[in-house]
Amino acid sequence: MECIYLNNRNYDGSQISSLWAYNVAGVQDDSIIYFRGTCNVEISHMIDLEDKRENEAIYSSDMIHFIIEHFDSTKLKLVYSRQRLFASIVSEILIDKGFNIKREGDDLFINNKKLSVSIASTSAVSQKIHFGINVIHDYYADLKSIGFEECKIEQLMYEIAESYVNELDDIEKDLRKSKPLDVI
To answer: Which of 26, 60, 74, 122 has the fewest Cβ atoms surrounding its Cβ within 10 A?
Structure first.
């Protein structure tokens, strides 16, 4: 799985499309691309039908973003499981840094205020996940208000992305050492 940092990008929802990593970085493998920028998802790019029906605004002036693509399956249940795994990894990292994070499904909260946004979906060729964490936000929870140091944001992004890659590598190793069960 390739892990790539892109500088100065904004998220508008179009990045959730299949083969986005190939189009922007020439990546044809499973990938996690991370960057920092605004988030402004227009209705036309919304995947979550509940958000779309309720005309929800998905906006942040400063957010860190993770775009994940897997090519081994197009199963929606698997990509939602991977999305929850990713949310758990982010939660664990922030808790280890001393922050009081609560995870509910694929969402992270601080003091009952939502810290993250996320969506997962599939296409004919791949699974896609977007996970964003507010760095600065006027209404929702953000890293700045909990005292996360600005100078450590890039390191946090790298640590989260690498942790996901390492977790998946570890799963792959376990798959190759497990004996199948016998049929009775």
So the answer is: 26
Residues 26-78 have pLDDT tens digits of 999 999 999 999 999 876 666 665 666 666 778 899 999 999 999 999 999 99
What would the DSSP string read from start to end of 44-89?
GG---HHHHHTT--EEEEEEEEEEEEE-S---HHHHHHHHHHHHHH
pTM: 0.93
CA 57 to chain centre: 19
Q: Please state the φ and ψ torsions of residue 75, each to the nearest 5 degrees.
A: -80, 125
Task: State the number of CA atoms in the 13 A half-sphere of 120 facing the CB.
Answer: 21
Say if CB 69 and CB 145 are below 8 A apart.
Answer: no
Please answer whether residues 47 and 53 qualify as being in contact, where contact means their C-beta atoms are separated by less than 8 angstroms.
no
Tell me how far apart the alpha carbons of residues 78 and 74 are, in angstroms, rounded to a whole number.
8
Determine which helix (DSSP H) or strand (DSSP E) holds 145, and give its type and residue range.
Answer: none
